Amino acid sequence: MKAGSVHGTLLAAVVAGVLVAPAVRAETLQDAWARAAQQDRGLAAVRSQAEAAQLDASAARAQRWPTVVVGGNYTWFDDAPAFDFSFTGLPVTPPELFGGDDFVMGSATLSVPLFTGGRISSSIAAAEARGRGAGAHLQGAEQDLKLAVAESYVDVLRARKALAVADSNVRTLEALAGDIGAMYERELVPKNELLAVQVALADARQNRLRAANGAEIAQAAYNRRLGEPLDRAADLAEQVPEPESLPPDLAALVQLAAERRTELAALGEQANAYAQLAKVERARILPQVSVSGGYNYLENQFLDDEEFAVAGVGVQWALFDGGQSRKRAAAMERNRRAAEDQRADAESLIALQVRQAWLGVEEARKRVQVSADAVEQAEENLRIARERYGAGLGTQTQLLEAETLRVQALTNRDNAVLDASLARLRLARAVGTL
Fold first, then answer.
1. Domain boundaries, the chain
2. CATH class for domain 66-115+287-320?
3. I need a labelling partner for 3 at 20 to 30 A (CA). Which of 18, 82, 356, 421 fits?
4. pTM, whole model, 2 decimals?
5. Nearest 10 degrees: CA dihedral of 362, 365, 367, 373?
């Protein structure tokens, strides 16, 4: 085979590989949510707290199981004690208690609670309520993180669109400066008109520098939110995903938020836990009955058996504790009432949040419609101003004002579109469905 053919074949293969290679997919908001869920330390802390609460509930349930305790010791005497029969007056040599100067003792005890006055069942119920509350708090933290990531994501898109508008403004003014410069060279316009557009161009270039810096800062903040290197470059998809469909009626949204907001569930479980802890304290002054059994070993020379088993029933009843249990129970009841009051206040605050988010969605939707028309009008206004100025019918001030209006219209349109997407996500978070 000829070298040219080989090179041609390799080139064709490379070109084919490039053509069939998959395009790099832009990073979506769902991708950002997945990364943040894995990397965010605050969410990891809340997740660990939820796991700890579940383990506490498992430990509370284990109180119903038998408890087995095993113990033992080894004792050495400098001189082992012995029985003393000197008081009898008989010539009896007192034997030692142990066969030497040391002995070994061991025991194994099993105990099972029979009656605790509801102390165990109430402590289990309290721990399980805390576990459910921690789980609800975790769900709320996940939704808060998703909204925070979405805001950072939109901030990056907003900053990049602002940079694109600033670039467009610079290009337009550069073109105007070129046109007016040519007209000035032909002595068709005075120098002050050229100077005015040059000053506007310098200002636009400064705005572009600020916009570029803002885009870098927004990207760094977004990367930090995801736990990525601050200088990571990311190609973000401009389409912000829509949340799940929500009822359009405000009253239905408020009702849905009352059912779905995890803060209300967490405060409700907290109140339930305090109520159960109050029962635990009251149960402490009731009889506590348990059955126990055990095995003991005692190395000695006098007992007929060194190994023996025991069984028994134990009762403990705190007849007087100075009012400690009663006062602790009263304190838990006060905490329960406080949690219920906090829940009622949170419910009112959530209703306000839902109303604000719903109004924000309506406002953003109307702004999108208005700003879209304004961009077309501003573009046409600039075109007409340039034609009039070129024909000597318009002023340089009108031309610069038309460009300013175009930049403002583009900025308003971009902000309205992004605000509309973010407003829908905020409404979903306010309702508790994000």
1. 66-115+287-320, 118-285+321-431
2. mainly beta
3. 18
4. 0.79
5. -150
Of 1.10.275.10, 3.40.50.720, 2.40.160.20, 1.20.1600.10, the CATH number of 118-285+321-431 is 1.20.1600.10
Band of residue 321 on the pLDDT scale cut at 50, 70, 90: confident
Averaged pLDDT of the chain: 85
In this predicted model, what pLDDT tens digit does every residue of 342-382 receive, in sequence order? 999 999 999 999 999 999 999 998 999 888 888 888 888 88
| CA 322 centroid distance within chain | 45
Q: How many CB atoms lie within 10 A of CB 333?
A: 15
